[in-house]
Design brief:
The protein is α/β, with parallel strands linked by helices. Among the domains are: about 200 residues, Alpha-D-Glucose-1,6-Bisphosphate, Chain A, domain 3; about 100 residues, Alpha-D-phosphohexomutase, C-terminal domain (TATA-Binding Protein, 2-Layer Sandwich). Helix content is about 35%, strand content about 20%. It has a seven-stranded mixed β-sheet with strand order 1-2-6-5-3-4-7, sandwiched between helices. A hairpin with a 3-residue loop joins β21 and β22. The radius of gyration is 22 Å and the shape is globular. The chain starts with 17 loop residues before the first helix and ends with a helix.
Amino acid sequence: MISERAGQPVEASDLIDVAALERDYYEKAPNLDAPEQRVRFGTGGHRGKASEGSFNEAHIKAITQAIVDWRRQAPDGEPEVLWLGKDTHALSDAAQKTALGVLAANGVATFVQRDNGVTPTPAVSRAILAANKSRGANYSDGIIITPSHNPPTDGGLKYNTTNGGGADLDITNWIETRANEYLQNGNRDVKFTSYQEALAAPTTSQIDYVDDYVDDLANVVDLDAIRAAKIRIGVDPLGGAAVGYWRPIAEKYGLDITVVNDKIDPTFSFMSIDHDGKIRMDCSSPWAMRKLVALKDKFDIAFANDPDSDRHGIVTPSLGLMNPNHYLAVVVDYLIKNRPTWSSSLGIGKTLVSSAIIDRVVADAGRKLIEVPVGFKWFVPGLFNGEICFGGEESAGASFLRFDGSVWTTDKDGVILNLLAAEILAKTGKDPGTIYLELAQKFGAPFYKRVEAPATLAIKDALKRMTPDQVTSETLAGDAIIARLTRAPGNGAEIGGLKIVTSNGWFAARPSGTEMAYKIYGESFKSEEHLERILAEAQEIVNAALRDA
């Protein structure tokens, strides 16, 4: 149900008490008898709330020490350097200080943004890859403190390995187990020093991530074309870590960029209320993006990012805020046609809950589709090894290769997806919304929807165990079922749920990897009514699975 306040300005009563949040972070201890208060790595690392005992100083000490331990026994040897970054959530500041205290006490050489500054996720990923290319494949890895677009109350931490991307499941399982062992013994074996001592430690180097990232952008996006076309660009960083990047980008490349909101405020008081009545910095949400959408006619193209800048939100004069799936289809179509140095053998990566219009674009171009489970980490090997040229997911996260076909980032990069929208306009003379309408005319217009509901850990585990034989019908919404999937076609990995496919639509059901919720995704190429039939039948299947759990 959509909140009656969705899209409305934030009120004082909506704002977090930052001081109280920080007290909870330092003073609350997790109850380890409660599974939700232990360390649990989802698709975006460990996430939680200080007030609920699931993201507190104890967790960050334990997780960081566990990462240190993992690095020391890693099969390829211990990396020499770790890149550390944080976004603009209130808990990210406290957590980075804790993490640095553990790293310094363990003698880990660490690079961190100077002056306690913030760093986008893609800047860390790019830094790892660039350093390892010049210094050796195992030279560095990274930790990023972020709960992504989640509400201001939340905290998160993820570990990126030497390939620049999120750690594989075997690594995060190892780290999770070790961290919970530390928590179980009260973190007595965790090495820790104060933040001030950590900053002064010889192993800590305060650096500036900005210049290297900005200087390198010309190798992945045609910024000269944007400048030559005099594209007027509007940007709202949504109070995130990219705030300090857009002005240097504009100055270095001579771009006409207007940053419509340059505030950093851990309460995110400048936001519009999201669909469920919460503050959420979701650049793909029409409610959270209400203010930028209202400015769409002032610019040729406008866009936004979430707090760690790994997601993108594209606003066009033709359509307003683009559905992420629609924009990804445009991106795939454009990159296939406008990166002539890329080999035609390179695959196109998508998550299995992304729109099937991408499948149709890829098939029409005679290219190979690589469909993987939810989570950007599944694209990491392909991007790193140059087997795929693009990886994108339905939640507005993607990355792609450099012009020369080498890896740019192995984590999502909202900045380059934003700038690519301007490149598309500059090179084609059409905004991405107009191009999407052309694709929909050619391949059929998809009707797509995601619904979600609160879920306990028991419910989430039950959904993970769903099997094809729980779908006894031979049809879905009147169409013959042609596939029942519990493993992704592109890599054979378990999807942690179930996907049912027909020639005219599909649904997928899975637990959220970042929130206490489950999600049902559905798509129809027939009509809105047909989509609702798909979702209704999907819900019946999910309800039956939960009853049997």
